[in-house]
Amino acid sequence: MADEISTLMSNNKDKTVSLRLRNTKTIQGILKDFDIHMNLSLDDAEDVSEEKHEKLGKILLRGDNILTVSFPDEES
CA-to-CA distance for 36 and 19, rounded, in angstroms? Predict the structure, then answer.
């Protein structure tokens, strides 16, 4: 299963990812890199939890703070 997750994450590098965090925030940005602990590096990140989106820029998220990772559906 770890190989499947690693492959999924690798296939989605440089694509937009949406993350739900333990503190109920939702962060969206471009996935740049990740490691075996699910620490993620994002570019052009923004907090999309509230109506008014807050730009965060380049961030590093520690894996144990991430509840869910979702990738937008690819358009045909």
Answer: 17
